[in-house]
Amino acid sequence: MKLADWFKVELSDEGMLLDVRPPGKSAWKQSFPWSSVQRVCFRSEDFTVSDELYIFTSLRPESFLIPTEAAGGDKLMDELIRRGLFPAEVAIQAARAPEGEILCWPPLPKQ
Questions:
Q1: What is the pTM of this model?
Q2: Tell me, what's the pLDDT at 98?
Q3: What is the spatial distance between Cα 72 and Cα 48, in angstroms, rounded to a whole number?
């Protein structure tokens, strides 16, 4: 079963809905408004694994992990760029990044 068959991202003017029904595990749904998004991170993977988006919101301390190969994942990336939540130039860097690299917007503080 392909990831897009069981992990779906639905977008609206207000926010997004994650509808996840993993094979052999409990299904779940979660929605959150665009206004709650505080940071977006992109983790580059090799061609055998889906790249990942980590969306941090004001609703909880942990991020929402969304595989880019989820149904609607491509539209999600376009919408994040359109809304200024992940600038196009950072998305281009992310697309070219080596496996395992993480790029965030706004950038993480230097330590």
A1: 0.92
A2: 92
A3: 19
Domain boundaries, the chain: 3-105
Q: How far apart are CA 26 and CA 84, in angstroms?
A: 34
Q: Which pLDDT score, from 0 to 100, does residue 111 have?
A: 63
Structure tokens at 94: 């992310």
Which CATH code is given to the segment(s) 3-105? 2.30.29
